[in-house]
Design goal:
Elements: E1 2-4, E2 10-14, H1 21-31, E3 35-37, E4 41-42, E5 57-58, H2 61-69, E6 73-79, E7 82-87, H3 88-96, E8 100-104, H4 107-116, E9 121-126, H5 130-139, H6 145-159, E10 167-170, H7 174-189, E11 195-198, H8 204-213
Parallel strand pairs: 2-8, 2-9, 3-8, 4-5, 9-10
Antiparallel strand pairs: 1-11, 4-7, 6-7
Helix pairs in contact: 1-7, 5-6
Bound molecules: guanosine-5'-monophosphate.
Residues 17, 21, 40, 44, 75, 77, 79, 84-86, 104-106, 108-109 line the site of guanosine-5'-monophosphate (5GP).
Length: 226
Amino acid sequence: MIRTKKQGLLIVLSGPSGSGKNTVCDEVKRNNSNIWESISMTSRKPRKGEENGKAYYFVNDDEFEENIKNDKMLEWARFAGNYYGTPKDSVQKHLDNGEDVILVIEIQGALQIKKKIPQALFIFLLPPSMSELKRRLTARHTESEEKIMERFETAYKEINELSKYNYVIVNDEVSKAASKLEAIIKAEKCRVDRIEEVFLDSSEEKIHEILVDKNLENKFVDVNKL
Ligand code: 5GP
């Protein structure tokens, strides 16, 4: 019998605005009840239909800066003129509860987490082409023409960071991209360094020694120690 770590896996899904991160993540969550998506904080104004505490925690610049000052953010970034960030406490609580936690965030924030928590899982979602990305950004009707161009130009810079991620998925079709993401998460959870103990009826001791020899120390995430 294998006992894996009680703590959940920290998954970072990022990619350019318009690559379909939220749609793919929603599909994966529908099929996996053990995945909890972190609710970010932002200083952006709510869009039509976005509820405070569901889509985001909507705050003003001063409130966001206060949270940074008080070390409440796991990561944060300025994106398209607004603050975006992940509150620390809830992430830790859900990880400790054994749930897998997914952060759907842009690239600057993802790279901050990579420095602090290299054992997290980093996945980059690419649009099938830049023209399709532009089409998607425009079709959402959520931003002005100027803001769409700003996000589109940022996407070129963001794609340059692709090599810093563990996996890449091209989002040409949501169901296909979602099943790739699920497969990656499943594989990651079978990694040897997520195993705490192995029991084999008669040779329990021996297997345990093997694990210790390989120096498979626990790599628990504790965001409060960062
Ligand atoms: P939007 O304004 O379209 O909701 O989000 C703009 C970008 O910010 C998207 O790429 C989105 O994934 C990203 N984002 C959302 N929440 C966070 C967060 O907590 N941290 C960071 N770094 N980016 C975020």
